[in-house]
Specification:
By secondary structure, this protein is α+β, with helices and mostly antiparallel strands. It contains 9 helices and 11 strands. The strands form 3 sheets. A 4-stranded antiparallel β-sheet has the order 1-8-3-6. A 4-stranded antiparallel β-sheet has the order 2-7-4-5. The chain has a 3-stranded antiparallel β-sheet with strand order 9-11-10. A hairpin with a 5-residue loop joins strand 4 and strand 5. Helix 7 crosses helix 8. The longest helix has 27 residues. It is globular and about 55 Å long. 27% of the residues are buried.
């Protein structure tokens, strides 16, 4: 997939670019870039939330811990995507998930208070934020439908197809964005089930698996598995 241009995020990221220039400059002056190593925690579930984040490079795993201590991956956030911005509007401003880097990652940390102030002075920016959050809500609803209504194989197939470049519709080579055990948690299946499904699709000559690199040999055949 093409990597978004995050060289100047205040001009290329919709939630930032929609702000008036003077507001962008004020927020930029209080923002900072940080780098995380693989496995490093950005924040834990329940930590006080006073900023949100834009991924410039790498991948962030957002997860929640069940009462029994089992981790559930909620989302994988990559370059050009923001996360934790909705928390600034919650009464209890605490992060509802844990954020962890699954690869070397660079982030832009954006303070919530000046962003909220900028929204108060810019109705257009408010509508842009609402549109973005609404799109994400619909995306999460689709995720819930897939995880509750679909069997395991269609979940894996849909994920593989979603990673294909838009210009390709029959064959493509994709690289899994996260380790297979993380992807399995995101799809609400066990790592063993994911491995079994990938082997089955490989035996059917629909894909070829080489570590985290997967070559889609027959996209139409994959679509028939949904």
């Amino acid at each position: 997939m093409n990597k978004p241009d995050t060289h100047n995020p205040f001009e290329t990221t919709p939630l930032l670019a929609a702000l008036p220039q003077d507001a962008r400059e004020r927020i930029a002056a209080r923002s900072k870039r940080i780098k995380l190593q693989t496995g490093e925690i950005l924040f834990h579930q329940g930590d006080p939330a006073d900023r949100f984040f834009l991924v410039l490079d790498g991948l962030i795993k957002l997860s929640r811990m069940s009462p029994t201590g089992q981790e559930k991956v909620v989302h994988l956030t990559g370059p050009g995507e923001t996360f934790a911005e909705a928390v600034m509007f919650m009464e209890a401003r605490q992060y509802p998930v844990t954020a962890q880097a699954t690869s070397p990652t660079e982030l832009l940390c954006i303070p919530s208070d000046p962003y909220r102030e900028a929204l108060g002075a810019s109705p257009e920016s408010c509508f842009r934020l609402l549109a973005d959050l609404s799109t994400r809500l619909h995306s999460r609803l689709r995720d819930i439908d897939q995880l509750t209504l679909q069997q395991a194989t269609p979940r894996v197939v849909n994920y593989l197809l979603s990673q294909m470049p838009e210009a390709e519709d029959r064959r493509a080579v994709i690289t899994l964005r996260a380790p297979k055990h993380v992807l399995a948690s995101r799809l609400s299946i066990t790592p063993e089930t994911l491995s079994r499904i990938l082997h089955g699709l490989s035996d059917a000559a629909l894909i070829r698996v080489d570590g985290r690199e997967i070559e889609i040999l027959d996209a139409d055949g994959l679509r028939a598995q949904r």
